[in-house]
Amino acid sequence: MFLIKLRRRKALVTGLFVNCVLALLASSTLLGVDEDFKVAHVARALQPGEVILISVDAERPLKELTATSRDRNFPFYSEGGSAHWVGLVGIDLDTPPGEVQILLSGKDLDGETVELKYQVTVLDKQFPTRHLSVDWKYVSPPQDELDRIARESRRVSRIFATTTPERFWRGPFLRPVPGKTGSGFGKRSVYNGKPRSPHTGTDLRAAKGTPVKAPNNGRVVLVKDLYFAGNTVIIDHGLGLYSYFAHLSEFRVEEGEVVETGQVIGLVGATGRVTGPHLHWTVRLSEARVDPLSLMKVLETAGGS
Ligand SMILES: [Zn+2]
Q: How far does residue 293's CA lie from ligand 1's centre (Å)?
């Protein structure tokens, strides 16, 4: 019990320290300090596509706590005691710069509502444009593939819109393939001279056949060859957090399977709309499009939560 308390304290101090740094760099505003609550956040930056880890210390235990921001709900979780709550909030790729309100609302043990407003200032971010040359069938798909493409898009959207109430992930997220760099999140994409939707994942360099490891615990909710993404695996990490891996050459898991951190889920490939083998990793958080590298950094900084 003592150890758990000590760890909680340490995590909070780290959060406050990073918050102070950010306050200088990004004018983040801490509105959440009153007699009942201490609120702190950890973020790599306050910009579109970033993940914010928010920790709340209440004076009295709470039964539940959820953050609501820009019409998205981000369920919080309690660790080591129900007065300390932690949650991940996503700043979607298309968030305009300016003040972003985060409403923290929950219930105490008597069922009384508690509410707290937290505010951060999101800075502008200019994403570069990338020009790619691919097979024309991925730029202007043939008529007889349009139904399939629409069906796949609806299925993936439905998955991302589902919030599993349980949290499966534990600790920081591992990098799914070896290496150090990742690139391309948010880039505006032009294929064969035609503008298409922005790149909502990060591309990790890896040779064909490299094993892809689950970055954290979860349940596999999709294993399928998709028109644009090629062989794709989606892992539900719980509480609205998903990993999506595209362009695989082979699968190593089945739909419905529970996977653990580090378990091989497939092999790197070049299936779908690609210019060569690499691993594409998308992360969605309550449907917000966020950079997987931001998620990794925030959980690492916060001590894994
Ligand atoms: Zn990609």
A: 13
